[in-house]
Design brief:
Layout lengths: L10 H13 L12 H4 L20 E3 L2 E3 L2 E3 L4 E3 L12 E5 L5 E5 L11 E3 L6 E3 L12 E2 L6 E2 L22 E2 L2 E3 L2 E3 L4 E2 L13 E5 L5 E5 L11 E3 L6 E3 L12 E2 L6 E2 L19 E3 L2 E3 L2 E3 L4 E3 L12 E5 L5 E5 L11 E4 L4 E4 L22
Antiparallel strand pairs: 1-4, 2-3, 5-6, 7-8, 9-10, 11-14, 12-13, 15-16, 17-18, 19-20, 21-24, 22-23, 25-26, 27-28
């Protein structure tokens, strides 16, 4: 009989090999190197690539999807569900998709803030898949091939046209018809767009500032026949606005003229003081203006354009100014016929601002400091 000698591992190595078989650690110099990092996969934050929910600290991975149209959610995307009762963490935004699901996505200011395969959505400032690679924009949006954003497709209807959705309008903004206790506002809907002193309206549209201070484009007009049914041509602004007799509110400073459907102000005569166009029966108020030389048109002045073929109303005279424009002014025969800070220019028989108060006499005349008249 021959004695067979077996070479067994040391106790330390033996126990470690058992540990490796159980939890999958590699063989190091000591047992301490069998760490938890090797026993469980690492997780990544919201917005990072993933292949399964276990990869994400949020516990949710939107997996990469490939189809005949391309790829969506390139490399996977760690996210989490969100809503009114579940806010997204700092640095992320809640995005609601067409199927009404909502998930968190990383916020951004430019495409460079997003991973490869993703773009910074211009509408919500969040990283979303580049639709040029195959991400679906759903049924209500379209893919902008210039930047990879899902955008609202441009409609065909101009400012003032009827609409039901933003997508009906060239401007992508529709004011929908609204039923109120007083009637109907914006009958049939109304294509519009925001405007300001630096953002002009398109052709055949005018910028209007409403009672709440907001400014929007509305269709220009010269008569009611230029406007759709349910709308009138505003006498003061020459734009198509809802007929206030149908239920549109005239706000706090105007009232509804039941004879015309216009929202009107004080209906003051030529030469009367005014603060806004609607104060005047003519629809034009020259507002008071402060300059370095003083005050012009003190208290405002109701007027209207005139010419050799368009006469002024009773008790008003057509005046042509230094810049060639012609407007009506209150008729007079003495200073007592004019308001305070105005003088009667006998040469034209009209009440004009006292040039001693700051009104400019133009390039051809000078101010007579004794009378306040331009001579």
């Amino acid at each position: 009989m021959r004695l067979i000698t077996l070479s067994l591992p040391s106790a330390e190595r033996f126990y470690f090999l058992i540990a490796r078989l159980i939890i999958g650690c590699s063989w190091p110099a000591t047992l301490v190197a069998c760490s938890s990092a090797e026993s469980a996969p690492s997780t990544v934050a919201l917005g990072q690539p993933c292949a399964s929910d276990a990869n994400c600290t949020t516990g949710l991975c939107i997996k990469e999807s490939q189809s005949g149209t391309g790829v969506s959610w390139t490399g996977g995307f760690c996210s989490q569900a969100c809503g009114t009762s579940a806010a997204c963490p700092a640095g992320s935004t809640c995005v609601t998709f067409e199927d009404n699901t909502a998930f968190c996505s990383t916020t951004c200011g430019a495409d460079g803030d997003c991973r490869t395969g993703y773009v910074c959505s211009t509408s919500i400032a969040a990283c979303l898949p580049d639709c040029r690679l195959g991400f679906s924009c759903g049924s209500s949006l379209t893919c902008d091939s210039s930047n990879g954003n899902c955008v609202t497709p441009a409609g065909t209807s101009a400012v003032g046209a009827a609409c039901a959705l933003n997508t009906d309008c060239q401007s992508s903004l529709c004011t929908p018809e609204e039923s109120t206790t007083s009637g109907t506002q914006w009958s049939g809907g109304y294509c519009t767009q925001q405007c300001s002193t630096t953002t002009a309206c398109p052709s055949l549209a005018t910028c209007i500032t409403y009672d709440d201070g907001s400014s929007y484009c509305v269709a220009s007009c010269s008569a009611d026949s230029d406007c759709r049914t349910g709308y009138i041509c505003s006498t003061s602004a020459k734009v198509c606005l809802p007929d206030c007799r149908q239920g549109w509110s005239c706000g706090t400073s105007l009232t509804c003229d039941t004879g015309t459907g216009n929202c009107v102000g004080k209906q003051l005569a030529i030469g009367a003081a005014c603060a806004q166009n609607v104060d005047c029966s003519s629809g034009i108020c020259t507002p008071e203006e402060s300059t370095t030389s003083g005050t012009q048109w003190s208290g405002g002045y109701c007027t209207q354009q005139c010419s050799t073929t368009t006469a002024c109303p009773s008790l008003a005279t057509c005046i042509t100014y230094d810049d060639g424009t012609s407007y009506c002014a209150a008729s007079c025969s003495a200073n007592s016929d004019c308001r305070t800070n105005y003088v009667c220019a006998i040469s034209v028989g009209a009440c004009l601002p006292d040039c001693r108060q700051g009104w400019s006499c133009g390039t051809r005349l000078t101010c007579n400091t004794s009378t306040g008249l331009c001579r």
